[in-house]
Amino acid sequence: MNLNELLDGLAGEKTALKCDRVIKGITLDSRKIGKNFVFVAVAGAMGHGLRFLSKAIEKGAIAVVYDIQGSDLFDIDKLPIDSVGIKNLSSKLGFLADRFYQSPSKKIAVIGVTGTNGKTTCSQFLLQLIAESAVVGTLGWGTKAGLKKTVNTTPDAITIQTILANFVVAKKQTVVMEVSSHGLQQGRVNGVDFKAALFTNLSRDHLDYHLTMDAYLEAKLILFRRKELQFVVVNTDDSYSERIFSVVGKNTKCWAYSAKGLQCAQAENVTAKKIEYGLDGISFLVCWNQQKMQVNSTIVGDFNLDNILAVITVLLAQGQELNEVVSKVTTLEPVAGRMERFGGDKKPYIFVDYAHTPDALDKLLRAVKKYCQGKLWLVFGCGGDRDKGKRPEMGRIASQLADVVIIANDNPRYEMPEFIIKEIQMGCKENVCEVIQDREQAIQSVISRASLNDCVVIAGKGDEDYQEIKGVRHPFSDQGLVRQGLIGWQ
User: What is the dihedral of CA 93, 35, 53, 140, to 10 degrees?
Assistant: First the structure.
């Protein structure tokens, strides 16, 4: 398409354009510009994209579409290429990209997954269970055959549409997309046509950005207000579930799941009974529509019952039969860095998990502690330049539930690690928390000191393969250190 077709209705009044060549691509990144590309420059927290305009022109951009906000600081009146200013460009970017890629989300079923905890696990479980599916989320984007890295849980609006277009070409039928509160509030999923939405839960997180829990919730509600949704799946055990249901459109079918047996009058209900947990998995009776079936899963962790029920409910909402769904669920495999189990067989059990919020850490420790025959050891920290209010709360939870707590670095970013640790210690009970700032040393120390019947939890980073310090990501893997430590354990 040409520039006029791309911007029709999005740029306000018609703009006199110098050329009308066919556009070959659109991008926010000047380094990715090719010949006959359109460079898109938005005003963001790190500055205006127009800073990189000269580089984009050098690389072959034929036009720049820019955010009017902040553009007065740049000389754009005598450019050798077309320039079009748009007010609030960020909110329109998804619709622009959707138009360029010819509405890929209308050609594929997109399931949005949102909530504080469980987004990645549910998305990866659905990827395992739905035929011809793909995923976009924290672990990356792609298929069961392999994932490519993403910078954010929910990528920028152009990247999302590019990815969806690739999935259409690859003939994928379903895309499961983790939808973050940042992504919703910043309009990154504008232009995406969602067939369904799943709500896992809501607890304290990202208050450095949203400031209040109510504002955090409002960001999540954006997804459930979508009129195009065919069905929603909601965790009725969560105290915010009623607020979620209250905004759902009248033409959207409601489904609910509960590990506590709760029923929602306005929804199809999927519940669990006769639940048994252990370090080797979960078994329970799933109940729906007067049917009951036994489910046996090797997935570990009390909270993972919620995630398993969530994916069962999504599959039922898609029209699959309960016996077919249960058969599939028994094949589920653990997700990397999410309650990932190591050890056993004459070695202590070690669990690596992404838990980095108070609620997630609480659930993680309670799940392991219930079946731990010896001491429960914990290595964790809190990220720098993020919600500081949760640090003492996580220290309190850690020291209440674990027998030995080692506080270590966890992506200090631009903050001084000592300050982060001191804020965590404010909530800790005495004589429980130790400090080993170097995370590698902390993990090595705990594994070497743990006894056979002990359990070790390494929390906060999950599958991350880096430690971020002063803007630099240094190679680092909790999982790699655990494997290494277990080799020498005796």
Answer: 50
Question: Is residue 431 a contact partner of residue 403, using CB atoms and an 8 Å limit?
Answer: no
Assigned token pair, 33: 């510009």
CATH homologous superfamily for the domain 3-92: MurE/MurF, N-terminal domain (3.40.1390.10)
Helix (H) or strand (E) holding 484: helix 478-487
| Distance (Å) of CA 424 to CA 172, 324, 359, 443 | 45, 46, 15, 18
Name the residue among 384, 426, 428, 422 with its Cα closest to residue 402: 428
Record the tokens describing residue 169, joined without a space.
Answer: 């070409």
3-state secondary structure of 314: helix
Tokens standing for residue 343: 């050890």
Please compute, for residue 206, the number of CA atoms within 13 A of its CA located in the half-sphere on the CB side: 20
Residue 343 CB partners (closer than 8 Å, separation 6+)? 349, 350, 456, 486
Q: Are 200 and 306 in contact (CB under 8 A)?
A: yes
Q: Render 106-140 in DSSP notation, one character per residue.
A: GSSEEEEEESSSSHHHHHHHHHHHSTTEEEEETTE
**Architecture of domain 340-487 in CATH?**
Alpha-Beta Complex (3.90)
Both tokens assigned to 154? 């929910």
Measuring CA to CA, which residue among 158, 16, 11 is closest to residue 82? 16
In CATH, what number does 101-329 get? 3.40.1190.10
| Residue 308 near residue 295, CB atoms below 8 Å | yes
> How far, in Å, are 24, 31, 252 from residue 60 at the CA level?
11, 11, 46
Q: What's the average pLDDT block by block, 10 residues per block, for the chain (490 residues)?
A: 87 63 92 93 88 93 92 84 90 95 97 93 96 94 91 89 96 96 91 97 82 90 96 96 96 97 95 91 95 95 93 98 96 91 91 93 93 95 94 96 97 96 93 94 96 96 94 96 88
Q: Where are the domains of the chain?
A: 3-92, 101-329, 340-487
Which distant-in-sequence residues (6+ apart) come within 8 Å of 272 by Cβ?
258, 259, 261, 284, 285, 286, 287, 305, 309
